[in-house]
Amino acid sequence: MVVCLQIALSVCGGSGGIGGVTSPCGCGHWPLCADDCEPLGCRPRRRRRRHTGQRPSPPPPPPPKAGQTPGVPSAQTQAPVAQRVGPQVRPAQPVVLLTDKEGGQLPPDEVLDEAVPEYQAPGRKSLLEIQQLDPDDESLAKYKRALLGPVPPVVDPSLPNVQVTRLTLMSEQAPGPITMDLTGDVAALKSQVFVLKEGVDYKVKITFKVNKEIVSGLKCLHHTYRQGLRVDKAVYMVGSYGPSAQEYEFVTPVEEAPRGALVRGAYVVTSFFTDDDRNPHLSWEWGLHICQDWES
């Protein structure tokens, strides 16, 4: 029987199978190996998987750690929304300016002063110390004489360094200058009324004296109130001055008084005269009426 099978295999072409038919494993022993090829010494071929177009399923997620809720990413893996959603640009944080005690924004010059806490102003020197610096330098001595002027006479030590003597409202359309004396009792000015005609051009002249030492950054502020509410704020930068026996005068630029039925009426103005060191040289209140005519 075995001899007949071998003859049949040899006639059919060896391992090519009977009639060209190959066994399922491709060994040529078919049909003897149709069920099992291992007893005959052949090794079955591995069938290749056909590509179905589907990606293999991803591996299952790792088990949650202790104390972590399943399905919720941890704080380390959870990125902010601004980082996870595309190449978006993060909005810039708003810059908050420094504010005063009332909650309003400070002027830019005051913001710069308050926003640089590391800045330390140089130590101040008296006028006598400045004049005695480098006495052998003739060119510096001439410069100081031209800048500071002659040495002022000795003044009463009880006098303040800065004295504001007058404030004048000047207008070409006015019958005459409107002057308030600031050398006496300034509290009495609150009960006085100064009339300003609506729509006219006017200037403010401030007269003051510097008695002892150099003062820097003088400024005059006017806060205008109507029925208890502040409606205007004006700041005039006066400048820096040295002591002198003569009075200084500072005149503001031309301004136009408001006009119309809504702005006519009584106002209360609070004025301040201060410097870079915020020394309160003088503060006072005075009444202002905006009317249709100077005599109203």
What does this structure look like?
- This protein is of the alpha+beta class.
- It has a domain at 162-291: Coagulation Factor XIII, subunit A, domain 1 (Coagulation Factor XIII, Chain A, domain 1).
- It has helices at residues 2-11, 81-84, 108-114, 127-131, 138-148, and strands at residues 162-170, 178-181, 193-197, 201-210, 215-226, 229-241, 248-251, 255-256, 265-274, 282-291.
- Strands 1, 2, 4, 7 and 8 form a five-stranded antiparallel beta sheet that branches. A five-stranded mixed beta sheet has the order 3-10-9-5-6, with no helix packed on it.
- A hairpin with a 2-residue loop joins strand 5 and strand 6.
Secondary-structure blueprint of this entry?
Blueprint: H1 2-11, H2 81-84, H3 108-114, H4 127-131, H5 138-148, E1 162-170, E2 178-181, E3 193-197, E4 201-210, E5 215-226, E6 229-241, E7 248-251, E8 255-256, E9 265-274, E10 282-291
Shape: flat
* CATH homologous superfamily designation of the domain at 162-291: Coagulation Factor XIII, subunit A, domain 1
Percentage of residues in helical conformation = 10-25%
Indicate the proportion of strand residues.
Answer: 25-35%
- Shape-level CATH architecture of the domain at 162-291: Distorted Sandwich
Rg from C-alpha positions? 49 Å
